[in-house]
Amino acid sequence: MDISYGSDKNGLLCGYRFENGAPGQPIDLAEATAWLRNGEAKAAGDFVWLHFNLSDAAAEACIRKQLDVVPEFFEALHEGSRSTRIEDAHDTLIAVVNDVAYEFAFDPAEIASLWLNVGPHMAISARSHPLRSIDRMRAAVKSGKPLPSSVAFLNTLLQEQGDVLVRIVRDATVQVDVIEDKFLVGRLQNRRADLGKLRRVLVRLQRLLAPEPGALFRLLRLPPPWISEHDLEELRQATEEFSLTIRDMSELKERIKLLQEEIAAQVSEQTNRSVFTLTMVTVLALPINIVAGLLGMNVGGIPLAEYPHGFMAIVSMVAVFTALAAWYLYRRKD
């Protein structure tokens, strides 16, 4: 079988068979269905992994027709909730895993879902857009990484997703450090928009990637009987490490929020200072504007019109009133 990036006529991107703890062997859909329907006894850890492209219209119909998949898997495909979760449905694990696009550039639109149906001898994954974690998993299997069981496949995928998430948090932290340094030296420029975009991405990631604690607790408390204790412990550790990364993301989000508040306070202070300066100029110019307006009226009876030192008298009067206004503003500037 040609394991290429594109899918075949059934929407299958890749397929592998894992037996006796050995590296996965490429397998097509016909071979996988024949292996699954073979009545011979299979070892506890033997399974096939089939990865489908849901953007191919034939993929979902093919899964319904040729594979033994529980109805809850298709319900998860079409329901509105996309939050990360792992549930037990008739002794089959149904997982919704949110991941980022392969070329993730901190854009909320680059977050998409991966759906999983994991049983004792079959693991099915399906996605609509190329995602980083599952592609890393695919590359590792193609290079010879062994998977002792289908639950080990799920645990490895969660670990890959955790590694991707750690890199996202690390890159976001570097961006926040740069923005904070520019803020401290007063050269923020247009970084406020970058902070807002970064915070929106982190909020969306946290909302979608944080596993639902209720579903996970029920699974760990009452797992399907075919899951070994070792695999269950690995799943518990993977979810705990994932939760720690989500906590780091939450702390980074709060740091961005505080930095946004500091920037808003600085902008507000600068605005108030500018308004106060404009007010001072307006008040200081008020006496001369009033006097000039009164003396500029073309009517009779203008005072000091015949007085030889009238100009200096008016200038002195304006200067006195301007000085009084300046003194008053100085006292009330705080």
Summed up, what is this model?
The protein is of the alpha+beta class and 334 residues long. Helix content is 57%, strand content 13%.
Features of the shown structure:
334 residues; alpha+beta; Beta Polymerase, domain 2; 2 domains; 7-stranded mixed β-sheet; 9 helices; 13% strand; zinc; transmembrane helix; Zinc transporter; cell membrane; transmembrane
Protein model, in words:
The chain has 2 domains: 12-265, CorA soluble domain-like (Beta Polymerase, domain 2), CATH 3.30.460; 272-331, no CATH class. Helices cover 57% and strands 13% of the residues. It has 9 helices and 7 strands, in the order E-E-H-E-H-H-E-E-E-E-H-H-H-H-H-H. The longest helix is centred in the C-terminal third of the chain and has 67 residues, at 229-295. The protein is rod-shaped and about 125 Å long. Mean pLDDT is 81; it is low at 1-5. This is Zinc transporter. The chain crosses the membrane at residues 275-297, 309-330.
